[in-house]
Every structure is written in C-alpha cells, then in structure tokens.
Amino acid sequence: MIVVMNHGAGEDDVARVTDKLKDMGYGVHLSSGENRTIIGVIGQRREEAAQTLEAMPEVEQVVFVTRPFKLAGREFHPDDTVIDLDKASIGGNELIFMAGPCAIEGEEQLLEAARAVKEAGARVFRGGAFKPRTSPYSFQGLEREGLQYLNQVRDETGLLIVTEVMDQFTVGEVAECADIIQVGARNMQNYYLLRELGKIRKPVLLKRGLSATIEEWLMAAEYILNGGNYQVILCERGIRTFEPYTRNTLDLSAVPLVKQLSHLPVIIDPSHGTGHSNLVPAMSKAAVAAGADGLMIEVHPNPQEALSDGPQSLTPQQFRQLINELKGVALSVGRLM
Amino acid sequence: MIVVMNHGAGEDDVARVTDKLKDMGYGVHLSSGENRTIIGVIGQRREEAAQTLEAMPEVEQVVFVTRPFKLAGREFHPDDTVIDLDKASIGGNELIFMAGPCAIEGEEQLLEAARAVKEAGARVFRGGAFKPRTSPYSFQGLEREGLQYLNQVRDETGLLIVTEVMDQFTVGEVAECADIIQVGARNMQNYYLLRELGKIRKPVLLKRGLSATIEEWLMAAEYILNGGNYQVILCERGIRTFEPYTRNTLDLSAVPLVKQLSHLPVIIDPSHGTGHSNLVPAMSKAAVAAGADGLMIEVHPNPQEALSDGPQSLTPQQFRQLINELKGVALSVGRLM
Amino acid sequence: MIVVMNHGAGEDDVARVTDKLKDMGYGVHLSSGENRTIIGVIGQRREEAAQTLEAMPEVEQVVFVTRPFKLAGREFHPDDTVIDLDKASIGGNELIFMAGPCAIEGEEQLLEAARAVKEAGARVFRGGAFKPRTSPYSFQGLEREGLQYLNQVRDETGLLIVTEVMDQFTVGEVAECADIIQVGARNMQNYYLLRELGKIRKPVLLKRGLSATIEEWLMAAEYILNGGNYQVILCERGIRTFEPYTRNTLDLSAVPLVKQLSHLPVIIDPSHGTGHSNLVPAMSKAAVAAGADGLMIEVHPNPQEALSDGPQSLTPQQFRQLINELKGVALSVGRLM
Amino acid sequence: MIVVMNHGAGEDDVARVTDKLKDMGYGVHLSSGENRTIIGVIGQRREEAAQTLEAMPEVEQVVFVTRPFKLAGREFHPDDTVIDLDKASIGGNELIFMAGPCAIEGEEQLLEAARAVKEAGARVFRGGAFKPRTSPYSFQGLEREGLQYLNQVRDETGLLIVTEVMDQFTVGEVAECADIIQVGARNMQNYYLLRELGKIRKPVLLKRGLSATIEEWLMAAEYILNGGNYQVILCERGIRTFEPYTRNTLDLSAVPLVKQLSHLPVIIDPSHGTGHSNLVPAMSKAAVAAGADGLMIEVHPNPQEALSDGPQSLTPQQFRQLINELKGVALSVGRLM
Q1: Nearest CB to B134; choose among A51, A166, A219
Q2: Which pTM does this prediction carry?
Q3: 3-state secondary structure of B165
Q4: How far apart are the CA of B291 and the nearest CA of chain C, in angstroms?
Q5: How far does the CA of residue D31 sit from the closest CA of chain B (Å)?
Q6: Which of A118, A273, B105, D300 would be a feasible disulfide site paired with A250, CB 3.0-4.6 Å?
Q7: How does DSSP classify residue A248?
Q8: What is the DSSP letter of C303?
Q9: Can you give the pLDDT at residue B1?
Q10: Which residue, A109, A3, A70, is CA-closest to A223?
Q11: How does pLDDT run across A125-150, given as a tens digit for each residue?
Q12: Beta bridge partners of A268
C-alpha cells in the first residue's frame, strides 16, 4: 500500500500516520515530493487498514500496489489450472462447448435438445432448473423436477451436466446432479453461496456479475478457492453499459486479461452476452480467437416456443453449423476441438 | 404490447404472427405504415409472450406500452403508502433518519453510537450484523452476536432497529430483532429472499442494486408486495458509473421519478452513495430538497477505528450538525422533522 | 508519481527504471515491500513521462499522487472565483438563474420567453442559435439570425445573454452577442475551441461532457484558464449511464466535489440532466440544496410547439412557480436570490 | 412512430393527439387496449414531431419503429459498400491493416515506423499530426510539419495514409495529404466537421465516440453520407464503462451488429480499445474472427520513447508476428489478407 498525504500535511501529520501504521504492524518508507509526502507501506494488503487510513483527515488517499486476489492470481500460481472431468478437460488445449436451453421446460424438450447438442459436438449440457427471473409473474423454473430431467439427460446421452444453484442450501442437491455447478451473474457476490461452494469438490462455473469489475469477479473466485475448492471456471456473459441495441456488452478483452492475471480457465457466454441469436456465431468465433477455453451457448429445439430467452437461442441446426465453422478458428489459434 | 414487423414482411408473415397472438389469447389491431406493419396487442403484458414473438424471424421487435410492475405502481394505487411504526411513520409528512455504524463491532461501540444518533434526532438505528464483503479476507460481521447487541440498543435507547438480512433462512431470526429488515444492494435480485420477505409482516428496506434500473428495482419490490407484504421502503444508494472520484454516483433523480411511478416511500443513503463523509452533508440536503422521505447515514463514534467504511462515516458531532442544518431544508419543502 | 515495479523485478530492473527517471530529470525514493518495489518519483507530474514508464516491461503501473489540474485546482487558489457581470455575479453568495428555450425559433417566441423568464426572476437568458443535433434531418438552429434576436432580447429586456459557440472560428461573433459563452457537452474536449476561448475575456460556461470524468472536465477548464481567461463557470448536465427512464443521470455529487477540488463556480442544468420537465422542479431544489451556484433551465412559451427539447421545457408559469419555491431552499442553505 | 397515451386518457385526449398528428400531416390508426390507447402513426419518422407529442400531457411516450438512419442503413441499400483505393479496397473480401504510431514525433521515427509496418504487411500508414490531448500540458502534435512527414512516407513507401482532422477548416489541407481522413472519437458529433466531410470525395474513417450508441454513430455517418460522400469506414475503438483494468471496453459485438444494420465497412482499433499492448494480439484475432473488415493498430519503433500512448503500442517485431498469426484466423472466416 501507499499512503498519499494531503497537500500541506506537516511533519506532525506524517508522524501521526506512521505511528498508526506501526501500531497496525506495518513497516514504512517516507518519500517527500515537491507538493506531498507519500508513505510506502511494507506488509500485507488489508482493506480494513486502508479504510482506517483513509478516514484520517491528514490522508488524501491510499493506493494499493498489489492485487487483492492471492489464490486466484497468477503471481503465486504461474501454471494454468486445468480441470479434468470424466470425459473432458477445461483450461487445457481442448475447447469445451456447453450448450442447451436457458430453462428446463419438460422432459421431451430437454432430451431433444440434449441429443441435438451432443450430435453437434457439445460435451456439456446446460439447462436451468432454478431460474432467477426479474418479474415475479414469469416462469420460475421446474426446480427439483428439472434436476430429475437432467439426470435422465446424463443417463441417456452421457453428456456432462452444468446447472445453476441459487442458494447455499441447495448446493448439495444440485451437486448430486451436476458435474459443474453454475453460479449466476446475480449471485456472483452471494458470499454465503460462494463459501458453501468452497467446501465441495466439484467444479464451479462462476459467471461475472452484470456490473462486476474483473477484480471483483476474481475476488468472488477467491472466496471459493479460499474454502479449498480449486476448480473454478470463470464465465464472461456481458456487462451492463449504455448501449441499448444489445442486451449486454460482451467484454471479450476479459479473456486475455484474465489469462494474464489468473491461472483459472475462462469461457464465454455469447447468448446472454448479446441477447440476439444472430450475433452469437460472430461472437463465438471472436471468443475462440481471443483465447477463451470454451463457450456456453443457448440452444433450444424451438426458440419460438421457449419459455425463457428464445430470442437469443440457436436452433440445433444453427448450433451444428456454428460448431463446424469454429473448427478453423480453433485451429488458427492452436486449439483442439 | 406492440409487435413491430420486419421491413419487407408480407401478408403471410403478418398472418403467422397474428395467428400466434390469437393462440396466446391476445386480441390484435393491425396498422400498416409506409415501411412497416405494426400490430397492437390487446391483453396482459407477459414477458414470455414477448420473447416468443421476438424469436420469430418476421418480427423486428416487441415494444411494451405498460410498465411491468402492478402492485408497486401508482396507476392502480394512487395514494402514497405510509408505513406506521410504533414511534415513527415513513412516507408521510415527517422525515425519517436512520443512522449508525456500517458494521457492528462490539457492544460498547454500538451503544455509544446509538446514544449519539438518538440525541441528534435519529429515530432508527442502523448497524450490520451480517456483512457482505468483497474480500474473503475482510471482517465479515459479528452475525448472531451482533443481533444481540442490537436488541440491547433498542432496550436501552428505544430506537427502532434496521439491519440487513443476507438470505431467506435467517429472515425469521432477523425479523425478531429488527423493526425494519434491510435487503442490501447485492441481494436486490435474490428472489428467494424477496419471496420469503413477502411472507412476513414487517417493513422491508429494499436497496437499489449497484447497476439496477429503476424498473428492475420496482420489480424487486413487486416480488415482496406480491407475497402480501405491502410495507416496502425503497432506498437509493448510488449506481455504478465510469466516474472514479466517487464510490458510486448517487442518482437523486430516482426520488421524483419513483414518486411518480410508485406509491412506495423512498429514502436516500448518501454514505454509500458517495463514499466520502465530506460529501454526505451536501447530498443529504439535496436528497431532502428532492423530496426523499428520509435518510440513512453512517455514523461511527470513531471513523478512524471503524472496521468497515470509515471514510464515509460521520462522527456523532458531524451528524448532529447535519441534522440541525437539515431543518431549514425540510421546512422549505414542507416536510416535518 | 509512484512507479510500481512488477512482482519479481530484480535490482537490475529497478536500476533501469531509476536511470530512466533520472534521465527525465526526476528524483527517486526506493521502497521495497514484501512483494514489490515501488519508486517514489520527485518532480512535476507529466503524462508523457508516465506513459514512457508504463511502456517499460519492468513496470506494472504508474500511479499519480497529484491531480493533473493546477490552475483549476483549489490547492494553489484556495479562494472561490466570483465572476462579476454587469447585473449579476456568479460564484458568490447570490444564486444565478439562466432560463430560456433550447433553440431560438423566431423573434416572437424568443421575446415572449425572455419577458416571461425575466419577470419570474432570471438574470440570464439562454437560447441556442447554433444547435448540435444528432440527426442531420433535425432543425439545426437559426445561426446568425438567432444571434440578432438575442441582441434584441438584451436591448429590450436588459437580460444577460448566454448562448452556445460551436467552433473556434465563430468565437468572436458569438462573443459580440453573448455575455457568457457556452461550450456544449459535445464540445467539452474540442481543444481548438477551448484554446480560442482562453484568449478572450468573457465568461465561459463549460458543460460537462456526456461521459467525461470530473477530472477530464476540470482539465478542459484548465485549457481555458491556461490561455489566460480565468472566468470559467462549470455546468453539470447529466452523465450517460445504463438507466433508461431518464435521458441522463444528473450527477449532483459533482457540486460538492467540484467545490472541494476547484475554486470555480458550478451550476446545474436539470433540464438536460433529466430530460423530463416534471423532474425539473425537484432536481432544481436538490441542486440548490447541494450548494450549486445557480441553475440553467429550459423554459418555452409553448413546449408542445418547441422545435427542440419540448418534453424537458417548463412553461413560464411553471418556471415562475419553481423560482418561488426555490426561495426557501436557498435561504435554508444561506444563499440569496 | 407509435404514440402511447396515458393510462386514463379519455376520448377527448385521444382526439386532441390525433388532431395534432393530422395537422402535422400524419395518418393515424387507433388501437385501444385494456389499459391504454395506442396510436399507430403513418408517415416519416421525425424527431421534432416526437418531441412535440411527448410534450403533450396526454401522451406517455412515443416509440419509434424505424431506425433514424436511412442512407447508412441496410434496408434501402442491401449490398455492402466497398471502398476502392489505389492499392487496396476496404469492405470487400480482403482485410485491411492500418498501422503506425499514435503521434508523429519526427521524420526519422515516422519513416522507421512506416518501413516496418509496410514490411509486415500493412497497406495503410497511420500517424497523428493534429492530436487531441486531455491535458494542455501534453504534447499537442506537430500539426502541419507532421503532414509533410506523412507525404514523405507515402512518397518513399507507397503506403496509403490515414490521419486525423480536427476541425472543418483544415479538411482541405488534410485531404491533400491523406488517402483516408480520420475523425477521432471526440469529434464524432462535431457536426460542422461531418458536414464538411460530406462535401469531399475521399474516404472518411469515423471513430465511434467514447460513449456513443451504435445508433448515434450511424447517425454521424448519416451526416457525411447526406452530404454526398458515400465513402465512410466505421471504426470501433472501445467505449467507456466502469471497468478500470482496461482503458476502454472494446465492443466487438458492434461488428456483427453494424454489419446487420448498415452496408458500411467496419474496422477495429484494439490499441485504444484496450490501452495495453499485451491485449492487442488477442483482440485483433477476435476482431477478425467477428467479421471486421480490418484493423487499426498502433506500432512504434520504440514504445518506451513514444510521446503518446506508448503503453498500447506494439513494436514492429510484435506487429509482424501478429500479422503472421492473423493469417490463419482470416482464412478460417473466409477472408483474404
């Protein structure tokens, strides 16, 4: 940390702050510039310490020089994390495709979608049993019944299952069914849920919050890692901006940036990221070219009958075509699929 | 709803869409412009119906002409909601002040803060027992122990208590202690929590999410109202923008806007809204002048020792002075305090 | 400035950077933490120097500890700037009201508006002769003819005139007519224009850009001040956010913040700031309570016939009522009007 | 356009609005829903008409059903615009690469950069003679002297030249030197400049404003097209969001979106879009995969000595390597280079 003193702070002011720092167990280096004194603080970054210092009237600001994430960061963990599942690995050389409908609507719809995405080349099937919905008057998901259908999908197709968990108390139940447990954007900072997920030993797909900075996103991962669960997959799904033509603004620069800052795998959800199925193919190719480890795509046997997010869902045919088109892109950046 | 057909959509396309609408139980009015046909849809707004239509290739967009909130809206509930508590009412002519520390740190700190804010004129005491924190390495709150201290505060000072609930399973426990139950910004779209709060009969203070639109905020209130709990207080606490000099951008225009759209009371939290204690007095006055029904302000006996949010906390003296200065502003807009 | 070295930077790396700094004429203070070395740089802040350093692979980031504005800042100019005009002063104890239509549409409309706003208590008349419009198919302003009508307004009513200048080449012409020259939000970073305005000796009203940070806004003022024109009035008019219910989000916290950082007067434009005339009264009161030095408000004799921005314009009656209601608010924060 | 009447608007209210519409020359279709009447308006979209209507108290909102851009839109111009230059074409099957330093610093630097980017495969050389800078204390560009150096570059290397114009009065001068005239992000809504560019017959590279919506960007293009200059190239260079780790958020979804809405070519500037040279390669690949027609990349012989934007500049070696790596990506999406 660096403490920047106020313009006009005198020796007494500086002494008061350095005393405080020493009380807190920090070492200090003074550096007096033309207009200001700055204090280099030797010791671990602590948010509380920074706030204490910023509340002192002599202090103008406290600047952090280290990132707040430790376990999620690449500094002390230079090698990529590769998550090995039974039939797939995530974060290695091979790309992973997760596909399926936004919401589970019934047994038939689900199995039809699952067969189609499997045939097209997906390894992981997605489908929401528990659905967070903006309106209380919207379809809220089949909940437990939906999990049963997902079990059928796995039994029949052999696809791996990813599905969303909505609170800490259903983690066990969802973990029984899912191969990968998804944390939705609205729950990225649900810390009770994150801590519970730190206790299990299954991969967690952590979606970036709608207006979460990359630092906050990695700190949410840090909660899970800090609990002892090292299998975290990050998923960028668009951030909220002023642009109204797209549902969200897909922040693809998060891919190379996360790859620099962190060892965790990162995948892209172009369906929520754009909100329009006709933008999904271009953004999927862009995501692979940018270095994403995989894609999560909404596919529905009949988007016009979908109970949720039809406008952003591909048909199975469109998905198959996209997978075919992605092969060349993957090859061009040295990835297998 | 209005369905806007694609440029170039022919009679067959229009027929396909109107058939679909009729299948869904809607009435239709066709209107053919120079470049496009639009279909006026007669019947209840339904998000699912809109998505179904938008997924049809003949349709360019679906436009809603009614707001999605019903119970929270003023259209069918023109009179202001006034929440009557034992020693205060919220949403009527009188302003309400809620004050206290961000986090409960111990018995002594809490009682000292409580006596100070009571003396200064606050009716409601705020203090967090359960704390959502960005970093797993930060102080996470005293939890149940904190609730006990809050009980002591009420017993000793007679202040009403507002405190945050973090999940649906502690609603009962928090409701036993709190006179008003707070939903934090990160939980504004935690629908399980909102539904649980719909079942109780205590006032809920619903903070606006960091990047929630006003419509989404009112829809979150709708979840609670829809459960049968009509005592919802809205609290604006700053939204996330590109401006780095303030922690958040306090959106004061939410006050007159919510007053037009909704009958629910709305208060302002200038402490989180700005992040700097020296901006709190000016923004508190602005909030009252804009028509807010009250304020929620962080006050700490010693901000430099606070375990959370010291830089944005007022000292008791600063709070007392602010309350004094607010009297004239309140009077100038016809409010009592 | 502070240079933060990369994690793992060795002595050689540090030496390379300190040599570079010394070459650039800076003094250095080294401070070695547990994980990183930081270098305190003694000397003037220079953006170019920071960029040079950031381009070095050994450097993680460069942090500024001083603000980039000098002339606009309060540090070296602690007293408020008060701009004295013939019949009014801006930035002192008295509030200033600027009112009038968005665009000048004709002689009659303008004089009618001018008489009305004068009678209601405005000292300054606003009206756009040169209009920046998003669409090439919209009304683009009366240009020179409009300036003549403004001259008539001044002659007949004695009101001071504020009007927008669109480029550096019409500064002279506009300055002949206007008592205060307005720089619109879209031109806040038109540096040629700002430099030209630095050469004249008339007050400049500098609107904040739609997505300008407060720092960038003060740097735009710095361009004018650096040219020798010290009469700059800042005007907040809403920033672009994700919220669709308002045209912009009026950032009222800019008022107390600018007052801390700078000695320049700051006024508020609640008409553009909200986009809805029915939000203007509440936000005007809030602005005065927050400490603004004045208001700029759109008033049109007949908003339903306005060629520009009718939905956000008050009628003369509404404006008169607002001015009456503002008196108490002004009094409550110790301001005259 | 569609006019949505207020809840509770009666027959008289509707009659007043339809009368107004007929006065303005519009046809009307009434459609009465359960809660509201909506009026389908037949005739050309006009912003002024919409504002007039929105200023009527009986009207809740006016909704546009057509896009405001006509000449820039694909509806009436379905085929892609391809701009043929002497040695390159833009918007066709072949990708175009524009590269060079942010600012022209001197003859030697410029020629060195030009030779390097030519050798690597760029067809167009970029370099700023006129520089918009946030601070008046930063290097402001070599201006006319810089244009001379650009002439030398063309003469010696045969590269095409793109350089920025800052106001309408230097359009002629810049057009003499440049093969493509660039409008910077800060000038995207400088309408005098856009109109002047409508009068010339040289390609214009129109950068998206920092917080411009895609609609506003296409409307800026509309100004140029409306003047008779049909050679407009759109360039996405990042938008302003809350994310601090990148300088801007590169909105790659603009590529497929603009391709749907418009016939104009669109290229990507990953240097400004990210602000960090180490993110440029990944985002360049992503841009090509998303369907961009080309790239504009900052290349400096020695980024650590650059007077502007060193941290986001590639070295010539890095640029050469990137061009090599792009070949496979281009091939995979059917583009030549």
Answers
A1: A219
A2: 0.95
A3: strand
A4: 7
A5: 6
A6: A273
A7: S
A8: G
A9: 84
A10: A70
A11: 999 999 888 888 888 889 999 999 99
A12: A236, A295
